[in-house]
Amino acid sequence: MKSRIPDGRGSGVLGGTGRAVVRTVPGAPGRGRSGHNGSVTSSDVHRSGFACFVGRPNAGKSTLTNRLVGSKVAITSSKPQTTRHAIRGIVHRPDAQLIIVDTPGLHRPRTLLGKRLNDLVYETWSEVDVVGFCVPADQKVGPGDRFIAEQLKKVSRRTPVLGVVTKTDLVPKEQVAQQLLDLQQVMDFADLVPVSAKDSYQVDVLSDLLVQQLPEGPQLYPDGELTDEPETTLIAELIREAALEGVRDELPHSLAVTIEEMIPREDRDDLIDVHAVVYVERSSQKSIVIGKGGERLRAVGTQARKHIQALLGSKIYLDLHVKVAKDWQRDPRQLRKLGF
Length: 340
Ligand SMILES: Nc1nc2c(ncn2[C@@H]2O[C@H](COP(=O)(O)OP(=O)(O)OP(=O)(O)O)[C@@H](O)[C@H]2O)c(=O)[nH]1
Description:
Layout: E1 47-55, H1 61-69, E2 87-93, E3 96-102, H2 112-127, E4 130-136, H3 143-153, E5 161-166, H4 173-186, E6 191-194, H5 203-212, H6 231-244, E7 256-264, E8 271-280, H7 283-290, H8 295-312, E9 315-324, H9 332-337
Parallel strand pairs: 1-3, 1-4, 4-5, 5-6, 8-9
Antiparallel strand pairs: 2-3, 7-8
């Protein structure tokens, strides 16, 4: 992965100074590593830096990123492990600019793709200023979470880690409290916070806690910018998200999307032609994606088009092809071609 930090600010300035505006976190037994006491101190300091969320697949990281940024930039799906690209969302605040890198789920590598994804995770952790470790409120803290915690401990001396209990809307309050206690057992956190991206519950508190860990610094991106991912990457992700809806469990890992061409239609200033290819690994998967009489692929196209038009603010014509790239997850050449 290319460095996610644009101006040479590397690990040397990692770790927030923790002197920013701090609010008490209702219901969270946070310890506050920098000795904050819940008081509010006004400050003219501007902070900027990077954060990422880690957690088991489906923990709600992408949804939380979207909620913090306030726009749909990272794809979400009910299928696990759908986030492959470290897409950044940018939170603009008067007192800070927080750039969120959405990392893929960490998992035991079985293929070359799996290994590259894990490498990407470690690289991201060592480059950011703060990590949010997400654990959903409705699932017991388990071996998967402890595995991640063990990995996180290796970087937590340099990079502060916040414990984030997500999806609190799904369970009663007592269960949220218990989950916070259980999570506290797995590692030392800079702070613990319960949130619900669905209800926007405590999302602003989380934003404050993340910002508190950032170093002082100027705005790194212009106002209004939500992500620095190239448009084509976002469009490819939107198509992949649509293609993943309601398909068999093994398919997500075998799907990749490339944008072959994106050109304004001649003589029309309101229409863009987008040509995309959906790659699968086997011809059996190809027929799943296409569906009977092409029905599924049409539905995928319709859904993706809706989101792409919203993203670009322009009408598009979406041309989708499905191709088989045999065993692309194990083939370095193909991986490169598909952008991994
Ligand atoms: N009820 C509820 N559901 C949520 C919340 N946040 C996320 N979800 C759902 O949980 C599922 C997974 O959310 P994602 O944001 O895609 O999870 P992720 O951790 O990014 O998943 P990967 O990309 O697989 O690592 C989706 O179906 C979301 O709609 C929440 O606050 N409340």
